[in-house]
Amino acid sequence: MPEDWSNALVVVAHPDDMEYGGSGAIARWTAQGKNIAYLLACRGEAGIDTMEPSVCGPLRVEEQIASCAAVGVSDVEFLDHPDGLIEYGVPLRRDIAAAIRRHRPECVIVSNFRETWPGGSWNQSDHVAVGRAAVDAVRDAGNRWLFQDLGLEPWNGVRYVAAASSPLATHAVDITDSFDASVASLRAHKAYLAALSGDMADPEGFLRGVAEAVGQRFGGVLATSFELLSL
C-alpha cells in the first residue's frame, strides 16, 4: 500500500466499521506522523438490538471517539444518515464531498463496498452505499461546478482511494507493530461487543485470525488488506 502521503480521510458507514480489520493500518500511519480524520455517515443508533436508538446512538458515538483515540485519531465527524437505511445518492455524495473539500486529503480510505466479504458472505447495504458514494464524492469534490452552495474550494488532490477488507484486495499493510493498537480500538466498542456472540465478539482472536490470513498472501507478517482503486 503506498505511504507517500501525509493526509487521509476515512469514510465509513458505522462506528466499528474500520475497527474490524483496517485500524491497524491507521495506527501505523498515525505513528508515522500522518494526519488522519474520520467521517461516519451515521451514529450506529440501530446497531444494538437490545438498546433503544435514542440511547444507542450517543453511546456508540462515545465509543467511536475512544476507538479512534486508540489509533491516534482525534478528528471524528458524524453525519445523520439513518443507520440501516443509508441510501446512495446525491445527498450522501454531497456530504462526503464537503468533508473532502474541508479536509483536503491525499488518500481516502473506505471499508469494503463490494457485494460480498472475503469468503463470500453478503455485505450490508449501508457499507455498499457509503463506500460507493465516497468513491464518487472524490470526483465530485474536484468539480467546481458541483455543490457550489457549499462555499468550499474544489479539491483535486486525492491521489489514492483504498477499500479495507475488500474481496478484490490488491495491496496490504504490515501491522505487526500496530496490531495491539488495532485490538484496543475494537475493544473500545464495549456495548456493541457485549451484544455480539461468536468470533466477532472476541477482538484479539478475530483480528489476529484475519491478520494472519492476509499475511499468508502478502508476505507472512500480520497484515491488513486494501483494494487500491484507479479513478
From TrEMBL:
UniProt entry keywords in alphabetical sequence: Zinc
Record InterPro entries: GlcNAc_PI_deacetylase-related, LmbE-like_dom_sf
The organism's place on the tree of life at top rank: Bacteria
Segments passing through the bilayer: none
Keyword RNA-binding applies: no
Keyword Zinc in annotation: yes
Protein name as annotated: GlcNAc-PI de-N-acetylase
Organism: Lentzea flava
